[in-house]
Amino acid sequence: MPIDSRIDTAAHAYRQNSHLLAKSFDGLTTEELLACPNQTTNPALWILGHLVWARSMALKMLGSPWERPWLSLFARGAKLPAPSEFPSSEEILLGWQQVSANLTAALESASDEVLSAPAPEKSPSFDGKVSGMVVFLAFHEAYHVGQVSYLRRWLGHGQIVG
Questions:
Q1: Is the CB of residue 9 less than 8 Å from the CB of residue 133?
Q2: Is the separation of the CB atoms in 107 and 3 below 8 Å?
Q3: Hey, CA dihedral for 72, 9, 62, 15, is it positive or negative?
Q4: Which of 79, 125, 154, 159 is most buried (CB neighbours < 10 A)?
Q5: Cβ(25)–Cβ(93) below 8 Å
Q6: Angle between the N-to-C axes of helices 89-109 and 8-25, in degrees from 0 to 180, rounded to the nearest 10
Q7: Four-residue CA torsion sign, 50, 134, 24, 148
Q8: Percentages (nearest 5) of helix, strand, coil residues in the chain
Q9: Phi/psi of residue 128, each to 5°?
Q10: Global model pTM greater than 0.85
Q11: What number of other Cβ atoms are within 10 A of residue 106's Cβ?
Q12: DSSP letter (8 states) at residue 129
C-alpha cells in the first residue's frame, strides 16, 4: 500500500532524519553524548531520547503505541535529569532503532480514517488532524537533528553533510 499523500513528505523526512542522526552520533563517546555547551542546553543523548519519545507520540496517534519505562524523562517540557538518571546510550539507541522501524511500518499502513481523525487538543497539527500532527513531528524532528549536528561540530567532530 503506498503511503498516503498527506504524510508522504513526512515519511521521506523521517527516513532522511534517521540517516542524518546516525551520522551525527557516529564516533561520539558516552562522555561526548552527555556534554553541553552550557547549563541551559540539552546534551545530544537527551535530544535522542526526546526524538524517541516524539516518534512514540506519532506511533500513538497512528494507533500503534510503543512504550518504554524511561520515555517520560524525555517528554516535552521534562526537566533535564542528571546524567546518572539516563538510560544507557545503548538502550536509547536501541529504542531509536525499534521506534523507527515501528514508525516506518505505521506510516506505510496508516488508514484514511486514522489520518483524518482530529489531532489531540492543543497540538500543533498543521491541519488539525492526525495527518498534520505526523507532518509537524517530522518538522520538529528535523529541528532537533540540526541541534545534534551542531553539538557534534562543537565537540570537534566533522560535519554530517557536504
A1: no
A2: yes
A3: negative
A4: 125
A5: yes
A6: 160
A7: negative
A8: 60, 0, 40
A9: 80, 0
A10: yes
A11: 21
A12: B
Q: Which of 37, 30, 35, 73 is nearest to 53 (CA)?
A: 73
Q: Are 51 and 144 in contact (CB under 8 A)?
A: yes
Largest CA distance in the chain: 47
- C-alpha grid cell, residue 84: 546518572
Task: Look at the block and give the residue holding cell 508522504.
Answer: 8
Do residues 28 and 149 lie in contact, with contact meaning Cβ atoms separated by under 8 Å? no
Residue type, 47: I
Domains of the chain: 9-77+86-154 (1.20.120.450)
CB-based contact 18:138 (threshold 8 Å): no
Contact 109, 1 (CB under 8 A): yes
φ/ψ of 129, rounded to 5, equals -120, 170
- Rounded Cα distance between 8 and 138, Å, is 11
pLDDT tens for the chain, residues 1 to 162: 689 999 999 999 999 999 999 999 999 999 999 999 998 899 999 999 999 999 999 999 999 999 999 999 999 999 998 888 999 999 999 999 999 999 999 999 999 999 999 999 999 999 999 999 999 999 999 999 999 999 999 999 999 998
